[in-house]
């Protein structure tokens, strides 16, 4: 009994000492008075736009009548999980108070942050509550603008 | 062989000792009393209460409103934004009166540089002897008691 208890404690200790999970691109960003630099924020921005792209694909699948009901339900669940993931990244990067409400020295980033926020708000509502009318026929302009911006980053 | 219930009594004793230790620790963590214009140091930040206004907005259904303006120094403007959040959420801010009324308040940053902050409280009609109890999430002292002098 004691040996198994000691073994369990040892196992837990080893598990606790193992390497921490890898840090995401939006974690541990250090703000200066100017905001964030392109080098620092760029990977996070790209990751957030990649999640927006996934959301867009999921929304297309949710409305695709050629897919089975199960597949469309699966797409909806995936969409919900991705919105949570995107929300986590957004909050890790500083949340709306830092990303949208505060003016950065590089105002292009403010515009980008606004575009991501508007896109994710729209897609999240579409994902959770569905579209009242027909499915979205084209990508939101704010999403397109955010994609163009990160594509132009070196 | 130990008496039945002895281990139970031992655990009750341990709980009592822990409770006494907790009360003693709380008694030792005395808050620092400060006046208007006096500096409160919290980690890398320096907070100072500059002015206080007490007025009525009776026509809007608010019998009494207390507005305290603060100046905040230290850190960059994004750190100062975090400061208002940390003090309000983790430290907690309360407005109190000499009659024993007390209510929770929030620090709100002003402008893009976040060097000014204010808080609003709504005490009952006819109140006086206002104090602000500000928790310090950055270390010691754990709390500041700011006398508003009104």
Could you explain the architecture of this structure?
- The complex is a heterodimer of chains A (154) and B (150).
- Chain A has 154 residues and is an all-alpha fold.
- Chain A has one domain.
- Chain A is built from six helices and no strands.
- In chain A, helix 2 runs antiparallel to helix 3, helix 3 packs antiparallel against helix 5 and helix 5 packs across helix 6.
- The longest helix of chain A has 25 residues.
- The mean pLDDT of chain A is 87.
- Chain B is an alpha+beta fold and 150 residues long.
- Chain B has a five-stranded mixed sheet with strand order 1-10-9-5-6. In chain B, strands 2-3-4-8-7 form a five-stranded antiparallel sheet.
Find the structural class of chain B using helix and strand composition: alpha+beta
What strand order characterises the main sheet of chain B? 1-10-9-5-6
**What is the architecture of the largest domain in chain B at the second tier of CATH?**
Sandwich
Kindly provide the name of the CATH class of the largest domain in chain B. Mainly Beta
> Can you tell me the overall shape of chain B?
globular
Number of domains of chain B: 2
How much helix is in the residues of chain A? 55-70%
Residue runs with pLDDT of under 50 for 5 or more positions of chain A: none
DSSP summary, beta strand count of chain B: 10
Largest sheet of chain B: 5 strands, mixed
Largest interface: A-B, 9 and 7 residues
Query: Whole-Å distance between the termini of chain B?
Result: 67 Å
Coarse shape of chain A: flat
């Amino acid at each position: 009994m004691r040996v198994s208890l000691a073994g369990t404690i040892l196992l837990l200790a080893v598990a606790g000492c193992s390497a921490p999970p890898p840090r995401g691109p939006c974690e541990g960003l250090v703000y200066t008075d100017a905001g964030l630099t392109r080098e620092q924020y760029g990977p996070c921005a790209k990751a957030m736009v990649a999640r927006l792209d996934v959301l867009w694909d999921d929304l297309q699948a949710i409305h695709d009548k050629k897919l089975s009901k199960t597949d469309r339900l699966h797409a909806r669940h995936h969409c919900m999980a991705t919105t949570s993931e995107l929300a986590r990244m957004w909050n890790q990067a500083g949340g709306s108070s830092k990303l949208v409400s505060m003016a950065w020295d590089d105002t292009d980033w403010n515009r980008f942050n606004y575009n991501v926020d508007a896109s994710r708000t729209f897609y999240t509502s579409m994902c959770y509550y569905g579209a009242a009318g027909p499915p979205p026929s084209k990508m939101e302009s704010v999403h397109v603008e955010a994609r163009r911006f990160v594509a132009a980053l070196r | 062989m130990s008496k039945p219930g002895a281990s139970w009594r031992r655990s009750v004793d341990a709980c009592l000792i822990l409770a006494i230790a907790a009360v003693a620790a709380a008694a030792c963590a005395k808050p620092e009393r400060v006046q208007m214009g006096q500096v409160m140091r919290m980690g890398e930040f320096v907070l100072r209460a500059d002015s206080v206004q007490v007025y009525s907005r009776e026509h809007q259904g608010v019998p009494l409103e207390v507005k305290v303006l603060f100046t905040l120094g230290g850190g960059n403007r994004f750190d100062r934004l975090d400061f208002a959040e940390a003090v309000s959420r983790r430290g907690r801010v309360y407005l109190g009166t000499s009659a024993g009324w007390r209510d929770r308040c929030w620090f709100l940053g002003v402008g893009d540089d976040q060097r000014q902050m204010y808080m609003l409280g709504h005490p009952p009609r006819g109140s006086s002897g206002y104090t602000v109890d500000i928790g310090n999430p950055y270390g010691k002292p754990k709390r500041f008691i700011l006398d508003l002098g009104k």
